[in-house]
Amino acid sequence: MTMPIRFSTFLAFTTLLAAGANPSAHQQATPASMERQTVPAAPVEKPQDTEVWEPVPTVVTPGANNTAPPSDAIVLFDGKNVDEWASARDKSPAKWIVAEGVLTVNKTVGNIETKRTFRNYQLHIEWKIPENITGTGQARGNSGVFLSSTGPGDAGYELQVLDSYNNPTYVNGQAGSIYKQGIPLVNPNRKPGEWQTYDVVWTAPIFKADASLNTPAYVTVFFNGVLVQNHFELKGETRYIGQPFYKKYDRAPIKLQAHGDPSEPISFRNIWVRELN
Ligand code: MG
Fold first, then answer.
1. Which of 96, 137, 190, 247 is the most buried (most CB within 10 A)?
2. Tens digit of pLDDT for each residue in 11-36?
3. How far is the CA of 142 from the centre of ligand 1 (A)?
4. Is 13 helix (H, G, I), strand (E, B) or coil?
5. What pTM did the predictor assign?
């Protein structure tokens, strides 16, 4: 008969210990009026506090598909003519070949560039390596999209165009590279004879009044819908030999390359740009 008494004593003792070890037991003893004096009231936040209603984004009508120009695009080539383009050498009329809705490089007349100039933009351009392409390495369907043309010849920032379907070369010179600077993240090339797409976001470099660099150029490139350059920071203009460096400019044309290699000339189509500022 002694066991229940001992057990109840033990229970009472442990309950006291538990109450002493629990700080909330003391807090519960604090009067509610003192709580209000020492703890500032939390501001009451509402869902509406973080809603932004203006400025309202401009309405843009998308193209019939995701490669067609949206309503605010400047169409640079729609298959009909090269009115938006000029010789990069002397600004004379562009003499590349337009036939059956396609613009084909004329290697005898050199690079062409847009008559308009741009700073920051989104660009869509499609290109095709001929099915019967010959040559190897850099001499197999070489062309390029100069994202800013800062002078005649190959002056500027080149996004490489090349047959890299099954054609080894230095990886910072394959299709989708920022030539001699940015290796593409992956190789999503289609085979010669098939149309390929570049979708580019170009952020131009900004220069100080003394011509030194303020902020570098950045580029994002989707190649056949696959990300190959992800906000890549450029070190300067493209250099065939030596390290790249920046040279002050403001707005610049977009240029297409007539490369001097003897392989069959490549073609472009459906070129449009949206200015970003
Ligand atoms: Mg090239």
1. 96
2. 444 443 444 444 444 444 445 555 55
3. 5
4. helix
5. 0.84
